[in-house]
Amino acid sequence: MLTKELFVDIKVLHKQGKSIRAIAKELNVSRNTVRKYLRGYDVPHYTKRHSPPTKLSPFHEYIQGRINAAKPHWIPAVVLLSEIKSRGYQGGITQLRVYLSAFKQLTPEPIVRFETGPGQQMQIDFTTIKRGKLTIKAFVATLGYSRACYVYFYDHERTEAWMDGLREAFHYFGGVPKQVLCDNAKALVIERDVYGEGKHRWNQSFLDLAEEYGFQPKACRPYRAKTKGKVERFNHYLKNSFVVPLHATLKQAGLSLDCANANSKIGGWLNDVAHQRIHGTTAQKPQYLLDEEVAYLQPLPQKLHSSLDLKSSALVSFIAPIDIECYQHPISVYSELLEQL
Asked: HEC states along the chain?
């Protein structure tokens, strides 16, 4: 069955310049199938299918809780079987072992540094920043080769924030990488491995964006955050080197950290500090490698979103629009304070 995800992969790989033979080989489909869907056949449609419940289904939540509570150790299947049988499970151990196989790691996973070529991959993430009762979210995109980053702050991490952050990251970097690596957030991944191992059902908005901008979406495996380590490591740097000093300065002035004042300063910090530091892994400045990587990025779509016009024109300064009603002090107080940072 040709899925919508495979349909988009065919179009994206063709846009990236790969031949019909190469696409067919990479996606494990016939060349006729590739030709068929490059000639204008409509995207496949399907209705949502639900897996039939099994005897083990009512105990999934209990088993997950036990797995998480035991980490980094492992509770044997026979022990879990005894536990769920005392709670009413009437099936056998085979069904339980099949379910557990997706989560069990027999040996510690080795830490292997995975480097990508210029223009190959961008990693994305949302990191949560809590300061007292206030919580804001930071969308972070990191280019795998140069380690150059784009950051924008939101008050939520719903699908529209992910999509907005991705569009703005592409325009900030001036091009599109071949792959975008994400975690398993429900805003992006509807269902993992539904068409086979590594073949997921994506959120339709994410899939549409992938087709429009010409990138392949990739999801890291559950419980393997190191796969997305480049963006994860930058999240710590962002919090310690940008958020903490900014919050302290605002607090001393009796002000609170929010999305508006964070966005008004993040652009300058990225350009003047984060991209000018010597990166611990590459031993190079991200800006130096970004200047090299830009040439390998795919071009932006010819037709830009009208909603991006105003925002894109302000990318260099990252000055966020000011909502006067959200401030408890005169605007001059904020302007004077932020100029000192």
From this structure: CCCHHHHHHHHHHHHCCCCHHHHHHHHCCCHHHHHHHHCCCCCCCCCCCCCCCCCCHHHHHHHHHHHHHHCCCCCCHHHHHHHHHCCCCCCCHHHHHHHHCCCCCCCCCCCCCCCCCCCCEEEEEEEEEEECCEEEEEEEEEECCCCCEEEEEECCCCHHHHHHHHHHHHHHHCCECCEEEECCCCCCEEECCECECCCCEECHHHHHHHHHHCCEEEECCCCCHHHHHHHHHHHHHHHHHHHHHHHHHHHHCCCCCCHHHHHHHHHHHHHHCHHHCCCCCCCCCHHHHHHHHHHHCECCCCCCCHHHHHHHHCCCCCCCCCCHHHCCCCHHHHHHHHHCC
According to the model, what pLDDT value does residue 324 have? Answer: 31
| Nearest Cα to Cα of residue 123 among 214, 213, 215, 198 | 215
Mean residue pLDDT of the chain comes to 80
Question: What's the farthest any 2 CA atoms get from each other in the chain?
Answer: 70
pLDDT digits (tens, 9 = 90+) for 171-195: 999 999 999 999 888 889 888 877 7
Please count the other Cβ atoms lying within 10 Å of the Cβ belonging to residue 264: 21
Q: What's the pLDDT tens digit per position in 89-112? A: 999 999 898 888 877 654 444 444
- Output the pLDDT for position 302: 80
| 219, pLDDT greater than 70 | yes
Say how many C-beta atoms besides its own lie within 10 A of residue 70's C-beta: 12
> Which residue would you say has higher pLDDT here, 84 or 37?
84
Nearest residue to 3 (alpha-carbon basis) of 20, 39, 28: 28
In residues, how long is the chain? Answer: 341
